[in-house]
Q: What sequence folds into this?
């Protein structure tokens, strides 16, 4: 009981510290953090939301889907089209004019963001009928294929999406408050979902589909619900990404993006909310800040010439070490807690004392 109270107190203190840091960095440039670092932090939050969306299907429900890039693209383009001004749309669409009903269509950012999530969720609903009857690798291939189909449609929808040129001049509404706020809302929703009857049904399906069906769980209904929620959250993540970048094109949502998000989920631990967030921050921060090894570095007598692509080599080595130490991901299927940290140090202390006594 005492440990539980201590864990709650430390969690509350950590949350207060995090809020203070966010306000300090955003308002006062705390610690001299520049706009580039703030941009990386916002990008980490956005990708954490996308990783959580994949974790609902892959980690919580036990399916293997790689359709996130398509849902993100739908959310991004919907948000972009609803927030770009009518005048900018006229100037952006040079090859072929934008369709009339979209030209003057405009909405506030948060409404556009929700609309992006709804469009992505509707696409997940339509795609779910054929693909959710498949399992394992077949589901992964089918969902990835539909994701590419969405991207190709966007690429060729010249009068709607501006084709390969994409959208520019998307208003930037994503600051640290919006990024962390959206991530917090998704986390709260996922915690409530996991503790609901639907969450328990998802876990039952993950562990054993036959046993879950024998218990009266409608497999297709719950898989579809999981897939739709995942699509909605991925659409929100795509909308935030579009607003953060200010410009998007179909190339942003290539199939390789699915592997990057999957890496975040697996690295953090499938089924773990904390793991997806930590995995997203590690992967995105590493990919950004390891750019330094691509450029020349001079440290006293050591003169490193810089090798293009070296950051991916270093990144891969770091990932290999992490997976070797944590084969099931950093958190596995568990969540972060201070109790777990205390148990870890206690076990290390007991091991040292055992060696001394031995």
A:
């Amino acid at each position: 009981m005492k440990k539980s109270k201590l864990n709650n107190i430390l969690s509350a203190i950590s949350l207060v510290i995090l809020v203070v840091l966010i306000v300090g960095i955003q308002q006062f440039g705390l610690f001299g953090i520049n706009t580039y670092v703030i941009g990386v932090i916002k990008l980490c939050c956005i990708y954490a939301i996308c990783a959580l969306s994949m974790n609902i299907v892959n980690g919580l429900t036990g399916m293997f889907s790689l359709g996130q890039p398509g849902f993100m693209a739908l959310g991004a383009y919907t948000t972009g089209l609803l927030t770009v001004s009518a005048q900018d749309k006229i100037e952006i669409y040079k090859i072929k004019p934008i369709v009339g009903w979209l030209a003057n269509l405009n909405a506030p950012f948060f409404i556009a963001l929700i609309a992006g999530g709804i469009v992505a969720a509707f696409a997940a609903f339509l795609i779910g009928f054929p693909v959710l009857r498949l399992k394992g690798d077949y589901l992964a291939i089918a969902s990835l294929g539909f994701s590419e189909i969405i991207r190709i449609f966007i690429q060729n929808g010249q009068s709607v999406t501006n084709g390969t040129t994409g959208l520019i001049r998307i208003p930037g509404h994503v600051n640290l408050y919006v990024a962390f706020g959206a991530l917090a809302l998704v986390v709260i929703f996922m915690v409530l979902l996991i503790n609901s009857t639907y969450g328990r049904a998802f876990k039952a399906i993950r562990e054993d589909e036959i046993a879950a069906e024998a218990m009266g769980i409608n497999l297709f209904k719950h898989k579809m619900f999981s897939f739709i929620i995942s699509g909605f959250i991925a659409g929100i993540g795509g909308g935030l990404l579009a607003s953060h970048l200010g410009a998007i094109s179909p190339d942003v949502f290539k199939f390789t993006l699915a592997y990057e998000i999957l890496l975040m989920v697996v690295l953090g631990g499938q089924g773990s909310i904390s793991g997806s967030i930590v995995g997203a921050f590690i992967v995105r921060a590493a990919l950004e800040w390891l750019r330094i090894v691509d450029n020349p570095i001079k440290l006293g007598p050591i003169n490193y010439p810089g090798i293009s692509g070296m950051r991916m080599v270093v990144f891969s080595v770091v990932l290999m070490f992490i997976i070797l130490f944590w084969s099931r991901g950093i958190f596995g299927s568990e969540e972060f807690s201070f109790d777990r940290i205390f148990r870890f140090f206690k076990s290390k202390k007991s091991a040292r004392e055992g060696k001394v006594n031995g």
The longest helix spans residues 2-28. The first strand starts at residue 297 and ends at 299.
